[in-house]
Amino acid sequence: MNKGFTLIELVIVIVILGILAVTAAPKFMGISSDARKANLDQLASTLQTSAKLAHTKAILAGKDNTSAIIKIAGSNIRMAQGYPTATKDGIVQVITDANQWHPMVPSVNILANFHKSVAGLMMFSQYPINKMSATEAFNTQCFVLYTDLSTAAKSQTGSSSSHNSNKHELGLIKKTICYLLSWVGADQYVGFCRKPNDNNDKKSGIQINKNFGTDGPEISIVSKGC
Predict the structure, then answer these.
(1) What is the 3-state secondary structure (H, E, C) of the chain?
(2) For the chain, which has fewer Cβ within 10 Å, the N-terminal or C-terminal residue?
(3) Which domain of life is it from (predicted)?
């Protein structure tokens, strides 16, 4: 009676296992990626809800138009213009189980990537802080960025005045450029060609919650690397 595998049978088994590994691995990787993106969406929603609840508290306390400290659930929360600041004693204190999201303050280099030169940002990563720096967490391209109201307002005001100053002079030129680029699908990669209601920055992978970035803190989901 023969025992064990023959060489041919062993080769066939190895080939089958190899095929299964090649076809199944991408699917499992896709599932993990979707799960991480879903976690970021959950965090963004939590930040939005928490900021709105804190804003309601500030309104009731008559401190919605100034910088102040208000008490929420027994904790002192630092506020700016009626919303939690992007600090450890601000938005991080407000959300439940904040440490599971590993909040960290972005470095100057990270701020430059977002074209922001002012303080007031907090980055929430799914990767433990003790295992990587803020720069390394940024390079994963899988995190949520919270910009408090004072910073978001300055950014919007600055960009608005810049556009207004060139609107009349360069309007026709920009339209012509965007029209020509649209024939080859390259207009989406030029900043002034993108439509104002476009929520996805297709080049950088940054998704911005427009509805909550106009009258409240700006919440950005970076999921390109998830």
Answers:
(1) CCCCCCHHHHHHHHHHHHHHHHHHHHHHHHHHHHHHHHHHHHHHHHHHHHHHHHHHHHHHCCCCCCCEEEEECCEEEEEECCEECCCCCCHHHHCCCHHHHCEECCCHHHHHHCCCCCCCEEEEECCCHHHCCHHHHHHCCCEEEEECHHHHHHHHHHHHHHHHHHHHHHHHHHHHHHHHHHCCCCHHHCHHHCCCCCCEECCCCEEECHHHCCCCCEEEEECCCC
(2) N
(3) Bacteria
